[in-house]
Amino acid sequence: MTDPTTDTIVALASGALPAGVAVLRVSGPHVRFVLETMCGGVPEPRIAHLRSIRNRNGELLDKGIVLHFQGPKSFTGEDCAEFQVHGGRAIVSAILAELASLPRVRLAEPGEFTRRAFENGRMDLTEAEGLADLIAAQTEMQRRLAVTQSEGGLTRLYAGWARRLLHARALVEADLDFADEDDVPGSVADRVWSDMAELRVEMERHLAEASIGERIRDGFKVVIVGPPNVGKSSLLNALAARDVAIVSSEAGTTRDLISVDVDLGGYAATITDTAGIRETDHGVEQEGIARARRALATADLVLNLSDCGVYVTDAPAAVPEIRVRTKSDLNTGVPFLSDVAISVATGDGVDALIELCRSRLSSLANFSSFALPTRLRHRQHLRQALECLTFAVSESHMPIELRSEELRLASDALGRITGRVDVEDVLDVIFSSFCIGK
Length: 438
Ligand SMILES: Nc1nc2c(ncn2[C@@H]2O[C@H](COP(=O)(O)OP(=O)(O)OP(=O)(O)O)[C@@H](O)[C@H]2O)c(=O)[nH]1
Ligand SMILES: [K+]
Ligand SMILES: [Mg+2]
Description:
Distance between the termini: 18 Å
Strand content: 15-25%
Number of domains: 3
CATH topology of the largest domain: Rossmann fold
Bound molecules: guanosine-5'-triphosphate, potassium ion, magnesium ion
Strand order of the largest sheet: 3-4-5-2-1-6
Shape: flat
Largest sheet: 6 strands, mixed
C-alpha cells in the first residue's frame, strides 16, 4: 500500500465536459509530492482548501478546491487527493497532462481506483460489483439492488454463512480429535449438523432468487404479440417514447424482432416487438413469425394485444400475460375481455398498462431482501457451495474428515464470490467493466 514503486494514478472522475465543476482524482504513494508540486503544499487532510493549481513553471492552471485523504482512510486505501476545478475541457486536459507528466504518475485504467480499493481491503468483490452496478443503474429497482450490494448486503450474508461453516468444522473436528475422550458431548455433533441442514435450506432459497436478482439488474424480457395490424409496433414506440419500429396500415409490416430497453415503472425491461402472428405462405413473414414464437418462449411477461377479441395463444402457459385491448378510440362497439384498454392514438390507458406491467413484474420479483445474487458468477459459486454442503449434511455414513472437508469447500466457494479466496483470473474482467476514474 505504501510501496513507493506503485504508480500514482490520476483520472477525471466526473462526467462529460464542459460542466460547472470537474473532479480529478489522484491515488497512490506520490500524492503528497503531487500536492506540494501543484498546490504549493500538502493541505490538512479531509478539509476543503481553496488553492491555486500551478504547473511546474509556476503558471496558474486554475483555482479550485483541493482535498487530501490520507491512506488508509480513503476510497482506495492509499493516499488520495481530489481537485474540484472549473469543468472546462482545456482546464481539465492541462491539469491532467501536468499530473501525468510527474514522475511515477500516470493516467488510470478503467476501474483502477476501485481495484485498488479491493486489493487494499476497503471493499470485497461483491461490493465492487455493486458499485459498478450503482453507477450503471438506470431504474429505481436497479438502484436499490445495487446500493444494497455496494453497501455490503451480500458481504454480510456470506460472511455470516462462512462463520457458521467454520464454527461447524471446528466443532466437528474437535469431536474427531477427542473421539475417545468424554469431554466433548455427543449432542454437539447433532447440533452442528442440524444448523448445517438449516444453512442448506437458506442457501437453496437464496440461490432460487438468483434469477430475480439477475432480471432486476439486466432487465425483464417483455414481449409484445398479437395478430397483424393490432398496433404492436405503435405500442412499442409509445413505451420507448421514440420512433423505433415502422408503423403502417399494411398487415405484416414487422418481420424482425425489434427490442428497446425501457424503464417500466422502475423496473428495467427489454421490450420486444414481433411480427403479427397469422397463417401465411410468405417466406419472410413465416420466418418473422417463427422468431416471434422463439421470443415468446423466453419471455418473462407477454403483452398480448387484440383489437377485436381474437388473441394469439402461442405463449407458453407458464408465462404471465396481460391482455391488452388496442385502438380503444375506434369504439368498434364489440365488448371483449381484456385486462386493460389502450389507445396509442390518444394516449388513453397507456399509463394504466405501465402500472399493470409494474405490478406484474413486482409479483415476479417477489423476494425477501435486496441482498440477491446478481451475476452468473455468484450463481455458479453458490451452486458449488450448496453441493458441498448438501454432501456434508446428507452423507452421514461418510467419515467425518470427508464431511468436514466438504464444509471447507463450501466456505471456499463463498469466498470466491467475495474475493476472499483466489480470484485473480476474474479481476480483470470485473474491473475493466468500470468507467475510468472509478
Ligand atoms: N385509431 C388508432 N389506430 C391505431 C392505434 N394504434 C395503431 N393504430 C394504427 O393501426 C395500424 C397498424 O399499426 P402497427 O403499429 O403497424 O400494427 P402492428 O401490430 O405492429 O402491425 P404488424 O407489424 O403488421 O403486425 C397503423 O395504421 C396504426 O396507425 C390506435 O390506438 N388507434
Ligand atoms: K402494420
Ligand atoms: Mg408491427
